[in-house]
Amino acid sequence: MSARRARQEERLWSAEETAAYLGIPVATLYQWRHRRIGPPSYRVGRWLRYDPADIRYWLDTQKAA
């Protein structure tokens, strides 16, 4: 399976799943989003979603900073 296909099959994470992965409260994600300092997020209908690849990239950039 190619890397592109694997990425396409990976589903978006909810705010709860993202917070659990990062080990932070969900409220922190919402604060970061409001302040535009956290990982990229997307509105899908009324739901907030995160791309796991974006979360990993964001974490890598935080380590480098």
Structure description:
The structure is a single chain. The protein is of the alpha+beta class. It has four helices and three strands. The chain has helices spanning 3-9, 15-22, 26-35, 52-64, and strands spanning 13-14, 42-44, 47-50. Strands 1-3-2 form a three-stranded antiparallel beta sheet. Helix 2 crosses helix 3 (26-35). The model has no long low-confidence stretch (mean pLDDT 90).
Write the layout of secondary structure elements.
Blueprint: H1 3-9, E1 13-14, H2 15-22, H3 26-35, E2 42-44, E3 47-50, H4 52-64
Antiparallel strand pairs: 1-3, 2-3
Helix pairs in contact: 2-3
List keywords for this structure.
65 residues, alpha+beta, 3-stranded antiparallel beta sheet, 4 helices, globular
Estimate the global geometry from the Cα principal axes. globular
- Cα radius of gyration in angstroms: 12 Å
What would you call the quaternary organization?
A: single chain
Largest sheet: 3 strands, antiparallel
SS content category: alpha+beta
Q: How many strands in all?
A: 3
The helical percent reads: 55-70%
State the gist of this model.
The protein is α+β, with helices and mostly antiparallel strands and 65 residues long. The protein has four helices and three strands; from the N terminus they run αβααββα.
